[in-house]
From TrEMBL:
Function: May be involved in a redox system involving ascorbic acid.
Protein name as catalogued: L-ascorbate oxidase
Catalytic activity, as annotated: 4 L-ascorbate + O2 = 4 monodehydro-L-ascorbate radical + 2 H2O
Family of the protein in this entry: Belongs to the multicopper oxidase family.
One of the GO BP terms on file: response to virus
GO molecular function, one term: copper ion binding
Gene source species: Gossypium tomentosum (Hawaiian cotton)
Keywords: Copper, Disulfide bond, Glycoprotein, Metal-binding, Oxidoreductase, Repeat, Secreted, Signal
Pfam families in the cross-refs: Cu-oxidase, Cu-oxidase_2, Cu-oxidase_3
Length: 574
């Protein structure tokens, strides 16, 4: 069946959904999970602290499904004094926008003692994850992996013999509640750099597996009685091809991953196939995921370091290390050579070379050649009555008490700011210098986008409050993938669109803007609902770095009453 022959865009979209449902009905399963979220004691980096866990596990349980399956998670909040939601990062939630798991946007926070049913389809294979999206609960450890395999009868466009899953995160000894208070204080108190980097929830604080190669007085790690923080060794057999699924749920850190003596071939980014290309190391920003292929073609009688280091910020956190261990060698045998050295934190040319080298696999969907609306979003650091904030086009986002999805669907005009945020910023603004007027405003307004139109978003970075400081920001879009059309230096200007890649741009759900630069994205607003688009750095979102896109919310079907049983929507549902 050729959907394009059906005519208008709306009909084509309906056709695609119908075909998807037909495909899903063949061999798809419903996978049920019962989860309880609670605080518990743990020692992610060998130091005991309170962590947020699911069913007594940290990180939370891995969900494994096949494309077309339906996931049902009955989530019970056992936190006693705070709400909770879970966002299914990278899952587009076609037809189920209330299951996106964004407090005040798609649903009410789940109150202590309550249970909420998340029910949604995973329509495409890929490497995904889930995490808390209320306050800064992701920083507290509320996250886990979500892996979607190919549907029965389908094959990946690459071969591998086995796979490993690496979920990367950062970890603080200061509680998230104390972090939140500091971010909202005057004078401002920054959260600082993480104490540790974690691989699958395991890291080592104040010790190193490779202490003998360090110039500092750091000690050699010992794990007697602390096995739960010992690294998970990747045990491999010689002359095989392994798929490494790598996802970053960090709250702050941009990371670089390298494997001693081995190249990696990148084949997937954010659930989309890319043209395979070989790298010695890869940069991964918060919210991103990759699959790489690794050939075990080195000396099988030694082990090799897997190293994770900080990029984009002056690192005060030790590398995270584990081992790639060939079957002929005991896992306890450490490599006798120095671990791979993470590229210098501010070597942005290295970062850009990797990021700009990602192209969609031949046969991937191509972007529309033109756009219907262009929104240019200026990222700035500002002050509001003395408090430090992040703002977009001089508006720092604050979320309302009534979820946008319900208030827009039911026409509750007083639930949020009715003034639409600006589509652009003052053209005289100098992005290379601190703003002469550093004050900003707060708002909860929404960008209302006409359904099935094509939108270009230009993310424009700028100088922060301090002179000559501009930070990396990874931006994540809910409910959609977008095409990354290009990157540029300085201020985006008329004519820069001539450099856009319209032939094979990668489809992503998260894209980075580099310091003092811009990133151009294009997406089709074909998924009715209300969707967050925000910096995936946890404290930056907490400080207002995000916007809200609404499209066709009136077309959303019956919303579960539990999703909207708060604020002004509590008595407005049909």
């Amino acid at each position: 069946m050729d959907c394009k022959s059906w005519g208008s865009r709306d009909i084509v979209f309906l056709c695609i959904i119908v075909l998807s449902l037909i495909h899903v009905s063949l061999g798809a399963k419903v996978r049920h999970f019962k989860w309880e979220v609670e605080y518990m004691y743990g020692a992610p980096d060998c130091q005991e602290h309170v962590v947020m866990g699911i069913n007594g596990q940290f990180p939370g349980p891995t969900i494994r499904a096949k494309a077309g399956d339906t996931i049902v998670v009955d989530l019970t909040n056992k936190l006693h004094t705070e709400g909770v939601v879970i966002h299914w990062h990278g899952i587009r939630q076609l037809g189920t926008p209330w299951a996106d798991g964004t407090a005040s946007i798609s649903q009410c926070a789940i109150n202590p003692g309550e249970t909420f049913e998340y029910r949604f389809k995973v329509d495409r294979p890929g490497t995904y994850f889930y995490h808390g999206h209320y306050g800064m609960q992701r920083s507290a450890g509320l996250y886990g992996s979500l892996i979607v395999d190919m549907a029965d009868g389908e094959k990946e466009p690459f071969h591998y013999d086995a796979e490993f899953n690496l979920l990367l995160s950062d970890w603080w000894h200061k509680s998230v509640h104390e972090q939140e208070v500091g971010l909202s204080s005057n004078p401002f108190r920054w959260i600082g750099e993480p104490q540790s980097l974690l691989i699958n929830g395991r890291g080592q604080y104040n010790c190193s597996l490779a202490a003998k190669f360090s110039n500092s007085s750091i000690s050699q790690c010992k794990f007697e009685g602390n096995e739960k923080c010992a690294p998970q060794v990747l045990k491999v057999r010689p002359n095989k091809t392994y798929r490494l699924r790598i996802a970053s749920t960090t709250a702050l850190a941009s990371l670089n991953l390298a494997i001693e003596g081995h190249k990696m071939v990148v084949v997937e980014a954010d659930g989309n196939h890319v043209q395979p290309f070989a790298v010695n190391d890869l940069d991964i920003y918060s919210g991103e995921s990759y699959s790489v292929l690794l050939k075990t073609d080195q000396n099988p009688y030694k082990n090799y370091w897997v190293s994770i280091g900080v990029r984009g910020r002056d690192p005060k956190t030790n590398q995270a290390l584990t081992l790639l261990s060939y079957s002929a060698t005991p896992a306890s045998k450490l490599s006798t050579t120095q671990p791979p050295v993470t590229p210098r934190w501010d070597d942005y040319n290295h970062s850009k070379a990797f990021t700009k080298g990602i192209y969609a696999l031949m046969g991937s969907p191509q972007p529309p050649k033109t756009y219907d609306r262009r929104i240019i979003l200026l990222n700035t650091q500002n002050r509001l009555n003395g408090f430090v904030k992040w703002a977009i086009n001089n508006v720092s986002l604050v979320l309302p008490s009534t979820p946008y999805l319900g208030s827009i669907k039911f026409g509750l005009n007083n639930a949020f700011d009715r003034k639409t945020p600006p589509d652009n910023y003052d053209s005289s603004y100098d992005i290379m210098k601190p703003a002469p007027n550093q004050n900003t405003t707060q708002g909860s307004g929404v960008y209302t986008i006409t359904l099935n139109t094509t939108v270009d978003v230009i993310l424009q970075n700028a100088n922060a409050l301090a002179k000559d400081v501009s930070e990396i920001h990874p931006w994540h879009l809910h409910g959609h993938d977008f095409w990354v059309l290009g990157y540029g230096e300085g201020k985006f200007k008329n004519g820069d669109e001539k450099t856009f890649n319209l032939k094979n741009p990668p489809l992503r759900n998260t894209a980075v803007i580099f310091p003092f630069g811009w990133t151009a994205l294009r997406f089709v607003a074909d998924n009715p609902g209300v969707w967050a688009f925000h910096c995936h750095i946890e404290p930056h979102l907490h400080m207002g770095m995000g916007v809200i896109f609404a499209q066709g919310a009136h077309r959303v079907g019956q919303i579960p009453k539990e999703a909207l049983a708060c604020g002004l929507t509590g008595n407005k549902q049909n």
